[in-house]
Each structure stands twice: as structure tokens, then as C-alpha cells.
Amino acid sequence: MAETLIGVEDLEPPRWASVDAQVAAAGTWRTLAAVPSATGLVIRLAWRTSRWLTALAGVVQVLSGCVTAFGLLATASVFTRLLEEGPTPQRLVAALPSIGLLVGSFALRGLLDSAAGAVQGALTPRVRHAAQDALNAAVIGVDLAAFDDPDFRELVRQGGRYAMNSIEVANRVVTDLVSAVISLLAAMVTAGVLNPWLAPVLLLSAIADGWSAMRVAKLGYRNFLRMVTRRLRLFVVENLMVARDVAVERFALTLQEPLMTEHRRIADDVTSEEVRLEARKTLVRLVGRTLAGVGTGIAYLVLGVLLYTGAMPLALAGAAVVAMRTASTSLSTTMYAVNQLYEHSFYIDFYRRLLTTAHARHHVSTGVTAPTDPTVIRLENVTFTYPDADRPALGGIDLEINRGEVVALVGQNGSGKTTLGKLITGLYTPDEGRVLWDDVDIAAADRESVHTRISVISQEPAHWPMTAGHNIRVGRLDRHDPSGAGWAEAVDQSGARAVLEAFPRGERTVLSKEFKDGHEPSGGQWQRISVARGIYRDAAILVADEPTAALDAKAEATVFAGLQHATRSRTTILVTHRLANIRNVDRIVVLDDGRIVARGTHDELMAADGLYRELYDIQARAYER
Length: 625
Ligand SMILES: Nc1ncnc2c1ncn2[C@@H]1O[C@H](COP(=O)(O)OP(=O)(O)OP(=O)(O)O)[C@@H](O)[C@H]1O
What we know:
The chain has 625 residues and is an alpha/beta fold.
């Protein structure tokens, strides 16, 4: 067995991970700049979700901060009255109004805290939902090629996984921050009024706390980036251990144990990295705490010096201590909130970039509509390279297909037949050259107008987890077929009738083992359903990519007869290796290594004695034996 199950140890990290690693390594002030933009994004999301709730959350938090500030002033006043000169009963009576205000502020603060909790409870799930919805809208609109780009897929996976949580946390934290900052300001002002020296020294401990939290957040994010590929491996192996589509081979190849070993190996690595990370975080926190403690000590020392030198009367000492304590509590809440925002700002920025990247991959509509039923499809010098591939899958393709023609694409594995089918139908856009439907360049045409005209029967059809009937109707959900005649015709032409009848509940059988009582069709049964779906779509251009690869001889004959009938009014592109089936098509195009090497009718190509004849003779000999 290879040393690792995947076969290589150093999988390339996604491009964005290396870009982010540079960002994470940048100076504190540069990265701190991410906090306001992340906060802005969360507030905008909340505002768009519910203006009313967002405004209410702001008002409640501002009030809560003001009440804390008010309580602080009342406490200071109580202390000043109690520590004044004169008989104790008199001082107590003098302090009573302030005590009353203090009790009232406590009660009000309790009420406001509950209100803040209720508003948050109503707002946060809505914001999360809105963020997810915006993400879905961005991702669902990207072009097909984006899903061939592993960087993009991983960005979507990680973005969906981490960013939603971060947005939720940031949403809670932003509101806490408002009240914490207000009470902090009140405490600083009170302390500053008592003595100007008290205000700046209060900040000492906050600076130490802030430094350590930022370091911790950076360590965490860098670790996240370093572990991206290992976590991806872990995810892939975890999936392989339970995935149904590989279950048979997992058992037959006795891969359970190797998968376990591989999982353990990667997980051990990830775990020890995490343990190391936590140890480093603890050390940084310890240093931060120690420095913060020293900062607090200095603040109290300054207070002591002020009292000792008589710069501050003893009567104000109580108020000063309360102000310092409130300042310290609000400071820790503020610092905690800022740190949380800082830590989550990486992932929120990640979300923002995911939206931007996805939107950049959206097709920009030019308002041009593709022709409903093009008279001619013309490819002019078309070249196409898959994302991340180092050579083009197709190059220099010139081809003309007339309305109603049946054109077969043939060639060896990997010669580019499927890719060409996707370019003709506008599923992929060429890097160079043009694909014209009549005179419309479909790269510039509105996607919807192009896709609605095409029907694709895939080489590996999707197994839609729906009833058998719906698996065919999903071909065109908005088709007007009240009597079901169109549906019945597609079922008959594709040979799917016998398949549906064999299912336990006929067309009402759910085709997915994910559901209880779900049924799993065989490969050939799926294929016939997919042919029925392609015919039911009733589009002007039909691409059938190996539509009979999994079929028995009888089913194959039925499908070809059905397709021939269905293709009479359509332009059809047929990709197949079974050359005997295409002897009667209008034109055969032979591909080799991404290029068209021959074209013509069966007889012309046989006479030309090239690659087509070679392939045909090999197949014919196999049947003659
Ligand atoms: N999604 C993809 N991402 C990257 N490369 C791809 C992708 N799909 C196909 N390719 C590459 O493009 C080339 C052409 O593939 P294509 O599927 O078009 O060939 P084909 O002629 O249909 O092959 P087959 O007869 O095996 O179905 C191959 O080299 C293949 O490796």
C-alpha cells in the first residue's frame, strides 16, 4: 500500500489559504483594520434583516449603558455623602435619595438586560438565516466551471462552515459592545473628574489584555490556514468510511481498516497541532493576565499616592474605587467584545470574500437572449481549459451543426467529447473563440435563455432523491402537460415504462435509500430514467452523452429507436463509443486529444481509412469473434 491512502502527502493548499497566511502574518494595526469592516458587515446584515429589531437592539443597549453610568454616579454620590464629616445618622439620611436612585438603577438595568436578551434572541437567528441566504444566492448563481475549481469548492465549504458561526457571535457581541463602551466612558469620565491621573492608568491593564487576545486570535487563524489541507483530507476520509456510493468497494477491497488507520494518522497529526496551539495560547494568555494584573496594581498604586499626598480627599476615595471597579469590568467586557470581533473578523472577511468571489463568477447578463431554435450552431476556433489544468481539453475547434441534424462525437477516452458537448450547449464558456447560435455569441447571452433551450442526458446521470415520476418531470418543472401526455410519451420513447412498472410503487416509488422505503434502481434503470428526463425536457438542442452505456442490448435498441423518434425535430449531439449505433447519423465528428481529426458520414470516414475506421474495425472484430 502507498504510504498514505491518497498517495501523496503534500496536497497543495488552496490559493486563498496562502494569501490569507500573508494577511495573518501582517502587523497588528493592519489586521485590526479588519474589525470595523467585519462589524459593518454584521450591522448591515442585521439592518437589512430587520431595521426595527436592529434599532431596538441599539436603543436597549444604549439605555443599558446609560443606566449603568447613572448607577455609578449614584454610587459615587452615596459614598461621598457617607464619608462626609458630621454625625453618622445625618450622613445616612443625606445619602438616602442617592441609595434610592442606586436601587432603581439596578432594577432598571435588570429589566433592560432581559429586554436586550429578548431582542437578541429574535434578531440573531434572523441574521444567520439572512447570511446563509445571501451565501446561497451568491453560490447558486456561479457558472458551472466554478464547481470544477477545487479552490472555489473549498472556499464555499469553509465559508459555509465557519463564517455563519462567526456572524452569529459577532452579532451578539456588537450589541454588548455598545453598552460596555458607554459604561466604560462613564467610569473613565467619573474617574477623570475625581482626578485626571486616574483615567489613563485605568487603560494599562486593558492594553495588556488586548495584546494577549489579539495574539491568541492570530495564532488560531494561522493554525486554521495551516490545517486546511489536513482537515480536507480528514473530511474526505471520514466521508469514505460511511459513504454509500463506495460502500461495495469499501467492503470488497477490505478498505475499512486502512481507512481507519489513515483517519487516525491524520487525526493524530491534527490533534497534536491543536494541543501545541492550545499550549501556546495558554502561555500568551498567562503573560497577558500577568501584565494586566500589574496594570491594575499600578492604577491602585496611583490612587494610593494621590490619597497619601492629599491630591485627592479621602471622602472621594470610595467613589474612585467604585469608578475604577466599574471601569475595569466594562473594560473587560469591551476588550472581550473587541477581541471576539477581532477573532471572528477573519472568518467574516472570509465570508465577504466568498460573496465577492462568487459574484465575480456570476454570468453578467448583457440582455441578449439566445435564439429559441437556432438554425445553425457554429464553433469558431474554440479552445477550452479546465480550471487548474495545465493543458487545454479542447483546442482550435471549428464546427457547424444545422438545425435538425444528428451529429455524433466519437473518439477515445479523454479526447474531449463530453467537453465539446458542454461548450456547444453553453454550459462552459470557451477561453478563446466563439460559440454562435445563429449570430448570437452564447457566452454573452443570458444564461437562462441558453440553458432553457438545451437538454443534456449525462454520462453519469444525477440520482435525484425524488419519486420515479418526478425524476422525469424534473426535466422541465414548468412544462405545461396537464394530461400527462408529454410525460407518457417520454416514458415510452426512452423505454422507461418497463422500469417504472417494475418498481414497488410504480412511478410513486421514491428513488433514494436515504429515505425509509426508498428504492435503489440499477445503473441501467437510472440511465433509462435519465433518457426519459432528457426527452421530457423537450428542448431544441439535445446532447446525449453515452446514453446507453449501462444498458442491455434490448434496452439499448429501444433507447436508440426512441431517441431517433425524439430527435426528428431537434438538433442532436450524440456522444458514444458504440459505433454500430451511429452508422445512420447525419455526420460523425472524430476527436483525438482535444482536436477534430476527421468528420463525415460513416461511409466517408470508413473510406478515409483513419482513426474512425480503426476504432470501428476493432469493435466489429470483437463482435465477429
Ligand atoms: N471537470 C474536469 N476538470 C478537469 N479536467 C477535466 C474535467 N473533465 C474532463 N477533464 C479532462 O478533459 C479532457 C477531456 O475530457 P472529456 O470528459 O471531455 O473526454 P471524453 O472524450 O468525453 O472521455 P470519455 O470517453 O472517457 O468520456 C480529459 O483530459 C479529462 O481529464
